[in-house]
C-alpha cells in the first residue's frame, strides 16, 4: 500500500485536504473559544455577556478556518475588498 501513496499528486489528494481542514477547524474553534472565555472572565461580569464572548470567539475561529479551508481546496484567497478595487 505504501507504493500507491505516490500515485496521487498532492494537488488532487482530497483526503489530505479534508484532514488538514478538519484539524485546522477544530484547533481554531477550540483555541478561539478559550480566548473568548478568558476574555469574558476578565472583562465581563454577567454570564450572558461571558457566553456571548465565547460565541464571538468561536465564530471568529470558524470563520478564519473557513477562509483557510477555501484556500486549501480552491487554491486562492478571498478578495481583498468587496468593490473590486485593490
From TrEMBL:
It is found in: Mitochondrion inner membrane. The keyword Nucleus does not apply. It is a single-pass membrane protein. Coiled coil: none annotated. Pfam families: DUF543. It comes from the Eukaryota. Keywords: Membrane, Mitochondrion, Mitochondrion inner membrane, Transmembrane, Transmembrane helix. Signal peptide: none annotated. Component of the MICOS complex, a large protein complex of the mitochondrial inner membrane that plays crucial roles in the maintenance of crista junctions, inner membrane architecture, and formation of contact sites to the outer membrane. Belongs to the MICOS complex subunit Mic10 family. This is Mitochondrial inner membrane organizing system protein 1. It comes from Hibiscus sabdariffa (roselle). The lineage of its organism: Eukaryota, Viridiplantae, Streptophyta, Embryophyta, Tracheophyta.
Amino acid at each position: 500500500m505504501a507504493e500507491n501513496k505516490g500515485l496521487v499528486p498532492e494537488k488532487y489528494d482530497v483526503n489530505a485536504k479534508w484532514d488538514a481542514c478538519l484539524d485546522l477547524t477544530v484547533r481554531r474553534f477550540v483555541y478561539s473559544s478559550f480566548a473568548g472565555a478568558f476574555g469574558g472572565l476578565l472583562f465581563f461580569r454577567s454570564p450572558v455577556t461571558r457566553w456571548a464572548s465565547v460565541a464571538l470567539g468561536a465564530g471568529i475561529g470558524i470563520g478564519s478556518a473557513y477562509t483557510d479551508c477555501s484556500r486549501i481546496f480552491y487554491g486562492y484567497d478571498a478578495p481583498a475588498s468587496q468593490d473590486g478595487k485593490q
